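Input record (one chain):
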Amino acid sequence: MFSDREILSVVEMLKNENLDVRTVTLGLNLLDCASDDIGRFTDNIYARITGAAENLVKICDEVGDKYGIPVVNKRISVSPMAVAGAPFNAQQMLSVANTLNEAAGAARVDFIGGFSALVEKGIARGDRALIEAMPEALTSTQRVCASVNVASTRAGINIDAVLLMGRTIKEAARLTADRDGLACAKLCVFANIPQDIPFMAGAYLGVGEADAVINVGVSGPGVVKKAIDRATASNPHLNLGQISEIIKHTAYKVTRIGELIGREVAQRLGIKFGVVDLSLAPTPNVGDSVGEIFQSLGLANIGVPGSTVALALLNDAVKKGGAFASSKVGGLSGAFIPVSEDLNISQAAAQGHLSIEKLEAMTCVCSVGLDMVAIPGDTSEETLAAIIADEMAIGVINKKTTATRLIPVPGKKAGDHAFFGGLLGESVIMPVNNATGENRFLRRGGLIPSPIHSLVN
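The corresponding structure, as predicted from the sequence alone:
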């Protein structure tokens, strides 16, 4: 239960600090919709999604209104389509994507995730068909999001899949050249992907999950920044250990709100409550930025020396506070640093404070990876694949989730701007080391073996 003081604090967060529940995501198992007939399969998944999600938006709005806590996004995640639709070819997979898009529209959700494949150890026929269909699927639909897991600590890094994703990203960018490569903003490449992510574009429902489950993603970067500002204004001599405690207590309050909303939505829908994802999810709005937290901590900008250790402090404190507040923590859980989706981070990149190399170093200690990074359109497939492979290595060796959402913006060069709209924001095009010549290292292909510490049985 909240004390009177905590309730007043939460009211202040809602009024002035951009607190909200960023997403309530309904996860649906579609494996029982399987059929070797494409018409029957698409009919089955449409009926399943629209039936289960019929009241999702309505109930989220009602619960949000009841507590005065807005639920910004209502989303759906489904079983990986490369598994559920394994018998089908690329053209039929495109039909599946269109059906997912239509079902999401009928349910009035903003995104549906799960046009996904798990290829960390090898690529099956269904995986290859789905990946082949991805560029056109992400171009022709508005709500479908895709993810591909190409590496894991237990399996290693599938370099063949990494190279394939480099080509896929380039093609998706080409098909949406008139929208600054927007299709790529709906595609994540992962190492160690969790089965219960509520955030897009990575969300899907793992094969070990229940038939239906509600997962919640909370917000709160603005709340954390204000808490630090208040504390340091009253006591400028606070040390970093004391500031960590302040972040931890703030994360506790934010997570309790997410759990409250998620459990009531699940109860009203009559389905299981899953997890709270503790990730601090920024938006392009002023005052709702992870980057601004770095300035409150005392750094000139995110990306300057000291940024990696500051992010480590922030990520750890958020996890500690959130884990105490919720009985079920999952997803990614930590701090997001998506360049275009965070106004302060985007500005730091434009001013030259934040480079891709520094961003990669910071991903060693944060929730995810190189997220919403716009790069020059002439970046080669092999350079894309090499950047992905480097990020996958960080996840595999450190036994954590890492991912990339890279957007090679057609026709634009470093220093230009890309505009994606809405929560996806805008960003300067960041320069990359696009070395000429064939990358003979990656072209060798194969599977980079799992590290020795994967042998934990």
